[in-house]
Amino acid sequence: MARHIYPLACDAPPPSPQDSAVPTPTSIPAGTTSSELDKWRKDFHRYATPDSMGGEHYVNETDFVTAIAPEQDFAHITRQQYGALFTVADRRKVGKVSWEDYVAFQGLLKQPAAEFDIAFRYFDTDGNGEVSFDEFKKVLTSLHGPDSLPFNFDSPWVTLYLGKGKAGHILGFNEFTQLMKGLQGERLRQAFHHFDKNQDGYIEPEDFQKIIQDLARHKLSQSVLELLPELAKFGPGGKITYSECVAFHNVIRDMDLVEKILRESCARSPDGKITKRDFIDHASRSMRYGTFSPMEVSIIFHFAGHGGKDRLGLRDFNALLDPKWGPPRLPSETKGKGRAAKGGALHEIGKSAYYFSLGGLAGALGATAVYPIDLTKTRMQNQRSKVVGELLYKNSIDCVKKVYKNEGFTGFYRGLPPQLIGVAPEKAIKLTVNDLVRDYATNPETGRIKLGWELAAGGIAGGCQVVFTNPLEIVKIRLQMQGENAKVVGNHVRQGALHIVKQLGLIGLYRGSMACLARDVPFSAIYFPAHAHLKKDVFHDGRDGKVLSYGEALAAAAIAGMPAAYLTTPADVIKTRLQTEARKGESTYKGVTDAFRKILAEEGPRALFKGGPARVLRSSPQFGVTLVAYENLKKHFPFPDPQTSLSDLIPREEDIARVRARNALKVLLDASPDFGSKP
Q: Is the pLDDT reported for residue 349 higher than 60?
C-alpha cells in the first residue's frame, strides 16, 4: 500500500526587507500567488509571537484559531473545535506553528481534497502517510464523549476496511475517505442493534432520539431534535423500525439535494407551497439515477409541517433546513422581518431617500441615452395633417434628417437640461414607489406577489410621478418644438426654460395632466409586471442560482417597454397636443375629451398612434438603461444598514480556504459531534 505523501512545493522568492521578522519559508505550495503569500504573511504576523529561545515567530493554538476561524461561532461548529486544525498544522508536534508550518497548512487548504486530507492527517497520528487499525481505533475513541454510544471495532464492517488482527491492512488516503463516508451508516446500524435488546426489529422513540442526538445533532435544528420521538407515529405500536431509522438518516445525508428540490419545486408553485406529490414529481424530473422513497418524503413533510399540514412553503421547511454551515446571516438578510426590525422609521426614510437618489441618477442616464428619439417622437406627434398646409415630415426617418440638416447635432438635445433636472425625481419616484408597494405586498414566506398587487404597484408608481412629469414635459415639449417653429415662423424668438415656466404659471404647468395620468398609470401598470415576469419566466433569473447578464437584463427591461409604450401612445398624443402651443390655423383643445374627438374627426384613428414606433424606440431602451442602471446601482452601492459594517456590504462569497477548513471539521463531526468540544 502506497503511503500518502504530504506535499510541499517549490522554492519561494526571497523575503522583502520589511518582512525580515517573518522570513519566507524555504518551500511554498505550488500555484501560490504573491498576493496570497502576502495575505498569509499579514495574517500570521498579526498573531505571531517571537520564540524566547531563538527568536523565530510562531503562533500557539489560541492564536492559530483566531487567525483562521470566524469571529463568531456557527450554529454547529464552535471556535474551540477549530483547535483540531491546529493539530494538523503543527507538523512537528511541538505545540506551536511556525511560519513554514502556517504556509504549508494554507497550501493544504488550496488542494481540492483538503477536507478529507485534513481528516486523514488527524487520524494519521504518527505522520507516516497511512492510517492503521490502531490509529483509527485510538482517534475515534478519543473523539467520543463519555455519554456516546459504544462502537464495536471488531464488527464485520470495520473488518471489511481494515481486516482483522495480523491479517489486517493499512488504509491509504483514498481508502480512508471511503471509510469516513460510510462511518455514519455503520454507527447507525450498531446503535440500533445496541437498543434492539429483543432482536425484534423495533426500538423505543427515546432510543431513536438518543441515536440521532449522538449521530447527527450537528446537522439538525433544535426544533427537529425535540420532535424526534414523533417519528414513532409512523410505525405500529408507537415504536420505530430500522427502516425508519435508515430513511431518516438518508434524509439527513442528502440534505443538500433535499433543499435543492424543495426550493425549485416551491419556486414553480403558483402560491409557493407544495405537496408531497409536487416534491416527488420535481425530484423525478431532476434526479437521473435515483429518487426519494415514499418513507423519506413522508419524513421530510412530517418534520417540516409537524404532521399537521399537507401544503408547505419554504418557511415551513426552514425548520428542517435550519443548520447553516456559513457565517451568521446579517439581520437584513433574514426573511420575514418587519420594517421596524431593520432600524425603525428613520432608517426606512433614509433608505427610501437613498434609493430615490439612485433612481434619479439611473433615470438621467436613461433619458440622455434616448433623448434624440424622444425629440423625434414629439415632433411627429405634434404634426397636424389635413389642417395646415404641407406636412413638414413624411416619417420619423425624414424628421431625423431634417432636424440634423436645419438644427445640427445639438438640435437633437434641445430641451435636455430641464429634462435632466426633472427626470431625476420623476424616475426616482416611479422606481421607489413601485419598490415600496411591491415590498409591502410580497408574501414574506413565499417571496411571491399577486398579479393584482403587481399591477397596483406599477399603476400607483405611474400616478405619483405625474407630479413631476407634467411640468417637466410641457417645458421640454415647448423647447423641442422651437426649432420647428423657427422654420415655420421666420421671426420666431427662441425662449428659455425659465421664460416658459413664468409664461405658463403654476396652473399652466399642469395643463394636460389628466392625459399624462391616462398615459403613465397604465404604462407603469403594464411595464413593471411585464419586466418582473420576463426576468423570472423567460430569462430564468434566480433559477438554480442564475444571475442575469447585462445583455439579458437589458433585453428584459427593453422588451417590457414595447407593449407598454405602444398601447399608451393615444394618451401620449393627446397630452402632447394639449401641452404644445398651437400655431395659427391649428385646432385648439379644451381638454382630453375634446382633443380625442377633434383628432378623430379631423385626422382619423391612425393619428392617435402617431409617433408610436418612435415612442417604442424611445421608451424601450430608455427604461432598459434606467432599470439596469438602477438595479446595478442598488447592487453595487447598497444602503449602509446601521446594523452592519461596511465590510458586511461586500458580497459574502467566502474564501475557498475557509470553506474547506470548515468542511474538514464536518468530516470529523460526522465521526463524532462531540469532537473537540470536551474540556
A: yes
